[in-house]
Each structure stands twice: as C-alpha cells, then as structure tokens.
Amino acid sequence: MKISTLLTERGEDKTPDVYVDVDGRKELPADSIKYLKKEINKLGKDLTKEWKSPLELVNNAFGNLDVPIPNAFQSKRWNQYTELIGDAISALQNSKGILNN
Questions:
Q1: Nearest residue to 96 via CA among 37, 44, 43
Q2: How many other C-beta atoms are found inside a 10 Å radius of the C-beta of residue 50?
Q3: Which of 80, 85, 86, 95 has a 20 to 30 Å separation from 45 between CA atoms?
Q4: What whole-number distance in Å separates Cα of residue 23 and Cα of residue 2?
Q5: How far is CA 4 from the centre of its chain?
Q6: pTM across the whole model
Q7: What's the DSSP call for residue 99?
Q8: Is the pLDDT of residue 99 over 60?
Q9: 70 touches 58 (CB < 8 A)
Q10: How far apart are the C-alpha atoms of 51 and 49, rounded to whole Å?
Q11: How far apart are CA 64 and CA 41, in angstroms?
Q12: pLDDT tens digit string along 25-63?
C-alpha cells in the first residue's frame, strides 16, 4: 500500500513539502523543480485562466507551492527560474496554440 494512500485514509495532508530552504546560494532542489514544472503544466492547460504572460503563470506556480521566487543575485536559482519561464511559454503554446489569443 502506498504511503499517500495511508496518509489520506488517516485524514492527513498527502502533499509533500515541496521546498525546504537549506542555502539560498544553491540551486533549488530537484524535487522542487519537478513539482514546479508539474504545476506550470497543470496551470498552462487550464483553459479557463487568461494568463497575461508566462511570467505570471510561473509566479503563480511558485505561490501555489509556497516556493519563494528567487532574486537575481541568487544566480543558480535565477537560472532555474528563467528556464521555468521557458517551460511556461511551451505549456501555454501547447495548450492554447500560438495563434489563439
């Protein structure tokens, strides 16, 4: 039996901690990036949402998962953040099409 099933049956929250800050100078953990990408794809597929930009989508994903948006001086995390913006562009393009406004 899966641990998530056991936790759900016990009434506990099955959502794992997506982000635990260890050192702001290091990259975000791989698990955090994985969950952020899933959230970006999920939000991008939601056709009821009208995103003003891919940046808004990424910032919403960070907010939904309680992951702090990196500052530009956190260069490793900032690079990951900019890559996630690219993922958001792809997610929006795939779900809404390039010509669909």
A1: 44
A2: 9
A3: 80
A4: 31
A5: 21
A6: 0.77
A7: S
A8: no
A9: no
A10: 6
A11: 13
A12: 789 999 999 999 999 999 999 989 999 999 999 999 999
